[in-house]
Amino acid sequence: MEHPKSISARKAVQTTTGARGAQSLDRAATLLILVGRAGPSGARLADLIVQTDLTKPTVHRMLTALVRAGLLDQDPQTRRYHLGPEIYVLGTLASARFGLHPVSMRALTRLSQESGDSAFLSVAHDVYSICLHREDGPYPIKVQSLEAGDRHPLGVGAGSLALLSALPDREVDQIIAANADILSEKYPNYAGPALPRLVSETRRNGYAFNPGLMLSGSWAIGMAIRGEDGRPIGALSIGAIEGRLDAKRRHELKTLLRREADWIAMRLHQLRQGAARSRGR
Fold this sequence. Notes:
By secondary structure, this protein is an alpha+beta fold. It has two domains: 4-83, Winged helix-like DNA-binding domain superfamily/Winged helix DNA-binding domain (Arc Repressor Mutant, subunit A), CATH 1.10.10.10; 89-280, GAF domain (Beta-Lactamase, 2-Layer Sandwich). It has ten helices and eight strands.
């Protein structure tokens, strides 16, 4: 049996360790907030030290850990800290109560129920696309290629390809060039001349098509949601096993996707008009 003094000592160590862990989390959260408040210009290490009243080694160590996790980013030239890409992903996922996401939920439900398969909502961020939501239909076999929060280079996947193809040629070329290395390394089916060809096919067909280029047997069809200026604000896609996306069914799903993409665009326009009228009162 463990001696009572040993038990007390162990509990004291656990309590101390827990307190230190909570303190570290508090400090990390404070640094994230301070960097966010610094705005586009970013935050200097010296300023963060003053604002937190912590030692330079402590602040630097925590900032390095946050950069490593993708929650912060450090500009190599200015050495200033900015909010990182993972903060954007988390914020986008947390936006389920606002904007495009909640408006799209009814459309995603209709798509998943009418098709029987999985419906997805994606948005573009810089040269990547992010899946905001996945809504599964009643068909028992599900594709496993995409989940909420997943991020891929623009053009990789049906919804992502729809987003890329809806952009002007100059932007498409710039994005493909920026992602050239990662496409060659991790997405060989999209590397070289493949992605420009897929963009051309998407524009010609009126929808994006992924015949298992990311994951064998996992096919998908996608369509961009366009804003009032004609630019893509998001994309809807439907994923299914290969046998459920032949040419005839793709034509049927294209009609469903167009209907729901137009409905989302119209609904967003109505909400903006309503908000404008309210501000004018």
